[in-house]
Design goal:
- The protein has about 200 residues and is of the alpha/beta class.
- The protein has one domain: Maf protein, CATH 3.90.950.
- It has five helices and six strands, in the order βαβαβαβββαα.
- A six-stranded mixed β-sheet has the order 2-1-3-4-5-6.
- Helix 1 links the parallel strand 1 and strand 2.
- The protein is globular.
């Protein structure tokens, strides 16, 4: 059995993200906790202009708040017909307290209002790691290209997954198995680069 290299706080309360990250890092030798273990820790304002900016902001904030090395990600959906929207505002697209279904409905409504028939889109993700003192150790990025369909399909995943069909597949992210999604998704690609970094980093 491989000995533990260190411990990382996964800076999310989203159980879907936690499962995805733990699956990709399985066998890495690292142990993980999430923000579910820190219910009193606040949430920082995501004021960055890019996904990397927001990932770094969150990683630093949660590392300093908990005294742990922290891994944070920021991701978004960029739709060509909407000039790249919702982009960095993907999680807040329909308002702060909106549900995933609300965000999907708004996206489809906005696409329906445009005369542009282009359904091309891409998911983008950035993953940052901060040490307990707030110093950024690594930033990785990943992209997944695809198209937006006309109505949601599938019960898996979260967010915009039921609307996004990645290139080379007929199924949405919400219909694909976790094994496939964890190989091709934007977040998976960023996390695999992060995993490569963690293999040589042992001080957290």
């Amino acid at each position: 059995m491989r000995s533990l290299l260190g411990s990382l706080l996964l800076a999310t309360r989203n159980p879907g993200k936690v499962r995805e990250i733990e699956s990709i890092f399985a066998g890495s030798g690292w142990s993980f906790s999430s923000l579910q273990s820190f219910p009193s820790v606040d949430t920082p304002e995501e004021s960055g202009a890019t996904y990397a900016d927001n990932a770094i902001l969150k990683a630093r904030f949660y590392a300093l708040a908990t005294g742990l090395c922290a891994l944070a990600d920021d991701s978004g959906l960029e739709v060509e017909a909407l000039a790249g929207a919702p982009g960095v505002f993907s999680a807040r697209y329909a308002g702060e307290n909106a549900s995933d279904a609300d965000r999907r409905a708004l996206l489809l409504s906005e696409l329906g209002r445009t005369s542009n028939v282009n359904r091309r889109a891409r998911f983008v993700s950035a993953v940052a790691i901060s040490d307990a003192q707030g110093s950024v150790l690594n930033v990785s990025e990943g992209v997944c290209e695809g198209t937006i369909i006309f109505s949601p399909r599938g019960d898996g995943g979260f967010g915009y997954d039921p609307l996004f069909v990645p290139d080379g597949f007929n199924e949405t992210f919400a219909e694909l198995s976790a094994d496939i999604k964890n190989r091709i998704s934007h977040r998976a690609r960023a996390l695999m680069k992060t995993r490569d970094f963690l293999r040589s980093w042992k001080s957290c």
